[in-house]
Amino acid sequence: MTDTPDFSFDLLATDGAARRGRVVTGRGPIDTPAFMPVGTAGTVKGMLPEQVAATGAQILLGNAYHLMLRPGAERVAEFGGLHRFMNWDGPILTDSGGYQVLSLTDLRKLDENGVTFRSHIDGSYWEMTPESSVEIQRLLDADITMVFDECPPYPCEEDEAKRSLDLTLRWAERSKAAFENRPGYGLFGIVQGGVHDHLREESARRLVEMGFHGYAVGGLAVGEPAAERNHTLEVTTPVLPTDRPRYLMGVGKPVDLVDAVERGIDMFDCVLPTRSGRRGLAFTWGGDLKLTNARFRDDHEPLDPNSSCPASRDYSKGYLHHLFRSGELLGWVLLTWHNLHFYQELMAAMRAAVEEGRFADFAAAFRERQAKPKQAGA
Amino acid sequence: MTDTPDFSFDLLATDGAARRGRVVTGRGPIDTPAFMPVGTAGTVKGMLPEQVAATGAQILLGNAYHLMLRPGAERVAEFGGLHRFMNWDGPILTDSGGYQVLSLTDLRKLDENGVTFRSHIDGSYWEMTPESSVEIQRLLDADITMVFDECPPYPCEEDEAKRSLDLTLRWAERSKAAFENRPGYGLFGIVQGGVHDHLREESARRLVEMGFHGYAVGGLAVGEPAAERNHTLEVTTPVLPTDRPRYLMGVGKPVDLVDAVERGIDMFDCVLPTRSGRRGLAFTWGGDLKLTNARFRDDHEPLDPNSSCPASRDYSKGYLHHLFRSGELLGWVLLTWHNLHFYQELMAAMRAAVEEGRFADFAAAFRERQAKPKQAGA
Q: Region RNA binding: what ranges (chains A, B) (predicted)?
């Protein structure tokens, strides 16, 4: 492992606040802006890893909470880590589990030390702390470990947001102390603070003082209006160092990604392309299409005849409509695949737009095309 | 279309009653013994057509009943036929729908003309006759059309079996009259007669007198013991011409296929590899494995490290166990794929055994290996 590169970030180009960069990990590079498909329980639902890779995805997201409960972090370690377990060679970022255990509102108890909670699978008692979360992520062999944080709900009063932020910062310190530095691996801090500008600034500043390999913006994608999210990004990203990647957690729709890249974000994860795919919703350059709608029944055209993705190119919308109407598995597979490919196409287009200094034009044209189908109705 | 070959069957080798042959269709050859994956509603559940083709499958089975109801045979025709609709270039055989509509015991009425029934999807009334079934299959562009038949239940008294057989023969005559002969396309008759030897012989003889491109053995795989099924094959296949393919409908488990090839059968279809795959059952050379069983939780080995099938080779049994325990789509996909590949491997092994004149040894060794895991328990 002597030639494993250090975890790092190269900023290759900027255009306004938008950035084109490359994260270097021990398992390969991640071109940014990057979208990470979600593989919660050790699988991107319905997709073969080689299909995910063929979409252009360079990194997946896994989840410490789900994998800790089943099959168990130690078991995954015995299988050689999450990469070997799920047959994915590229880098993996793992969620710390904080968001998930704190979502178990009836089943959990939070204190300074961490969270005790009951498994959603079998009701068994568990404890999760900054130290145990980092250890679980080490057992999973995550290339990017996330600090254990508290993610307050939206809306959140300022004093509650401040209390939560302070706890998250103490947990970030403990997470960092627990994290074992190894070449090629990184630890990301998480900015909190609700939608209170000075709390976001304080959170970001104090995290940067601690020093992390990358910085996530957490506590968004929890129901806030897009304008509040965008404003929060505008006050947060300027506080973050330019030489570290910035990851907006849990966002979002295609236009949300464009909004966030425009405000200096480099990395994303979201269940939308996969979950929506299983529900019959296709994301396209021309906007969203609900393929279960009767208007697609006799549509002989594929989602994108020029795509390199078989799911987008080789099956008519009428056939996809038939699969969803018939409850056929292949519909879920094809539309998940199409959506993941579209998200990667979008990221590639944004990278090119930044490189070529035309991001604002790209973003304006993209928003206009995305808005059209909603006006036309569905 | 001037160079489309006539539908034909070449008998390439025999070993006892077992046959190695090749069906020629307008959309390519089918090496026999052949297994046809079931694609009831225009999709082999959970599988991409290219994955199915990569298993070695040369022909799929579709279903006139299901496709007639949804999306509709005329609609499929407007999409360019079932092949273009579902993105499968090879030959397709379609079930006539007889078996399905007659399974709707509470919803159907049978008379000389045909069957009136209510759709299992929306309760709408439909009529199906030998003529309409053949027309539906023509609209689907089936390479092999099946005559519309009545499939009696098991057990069935002799007089009832005789009545049903006579009706099926009259329907076969009408199906043949309705079938449009075209180069590369074939029509198969269906032998019925329950497990009554002289009725099977009579049914086969009278069908052969009418003349079809191939002959199916129907009315089995309906709950009869394997010994009765095998005996019925032994009295039936000698009546059938050697220069036409013989198709055993709806069978079966791996050992059932070996039993039937040993008795002169060339073609099969069955939902077992796909349906069992979705239920966590893997067919292997060493017998069946129920992957949901806890004994696979820490099994780091794949189903078959030497397989050319990614599903069999690239994922541990422990990972498959995890996917099934977690209700993950990918488990259904991978095990369906593995099972379809195993079935094709089995057919290829039987073809080689016939060619090399060692089918009896192959069959004996196969049965012994298949029986072992059941003795060991699971």
A: 250-256, 274-278
Number of C-alpha atoms within 13 angstroms, CB side, residue A354?
A: 26
Residue A46, chain B, CB below 8 Å: the answer is: yes
Q: Which residue of B has its CA nearest to A84?
A: B315
**Residue contact B316–A85, C-beta within 8 A:** yes
A119 is in an annotated binding site: no
Residue pLDDT, tens place only, B174-187: 999 999 999 999 99
Which SS3 state, helix, strand or coil, does residue B252 take?
Answer: coil
Please name the member of B86, B298, B328 whose beta carbon is closest to the beta carbon of A45. B328
Q: What is the largest CA-CA distance in chain B?
A: 60
Residue B126 phi/psi, 5° resolution?
-140, 155
DSSP B80-129: TSHHHHHT--S-EEEE-SHHHHHH-TTTEEE-SS-EEEE-TTT--EEEE-
A341-350 pLDDT, tens per residue? 999 999 999 9
- Which of A71, A78, A300 comes nearest B79 by C-beta? A300
pLDDT at B375 over 50: no
Shortest Cα distance, chain A CAs vs residue B61, angstroms: 16
Residue B376 confidence class, pLDDT cut points 50, 70, 90: very low
Please give the Cα distance from B34 to B31 (Å, whole number).
6
B222 touches B195 (CB < 8 A): no
Chain A neighbors of B298, CB-CB under 8 A: 75, 78
Inform me whether the C-beta atom of residue B4 falls under 8 Å from chain A C-beta atoms. no
Res. A127 pLDDT band, cuts 50 70 90: very high
Please, how many CA atoms are within 13 Å of residue A338, restricted to the half-sphere of its CB? 33
In sequence order, what are the residues at sequence separation of 6 or more whose Cβ sits closer than 8 angstroms to the Cβ of residue A319? B42, B79, B85, B86, B87
Q: What is the pLDDT of residues B195-253, one digit of tens each?
A: 999 999 999 999 999 999 999 999 999 999 999 999 999 999 999 999 999 999 999 99
Amino acid sitting at position A184: G
- Cα–Cα–Cα angle for B355, B358, B362, rounded to 5 degrees: 115
Domains, chain B: 8-270 (3.20.20.105), 279-370 (no CATH)
Looking at chain B, the whole-number percentage of residues with pLDDT higher than 70 is 98
What is the average per-residue pLDDT within B320-342?
Answer: 98
Q: Is A214 annotated as a binding residue?
A: no
pTM: 0.97
Whether the bond into B318 is cis, omega within 30 of 0 = no
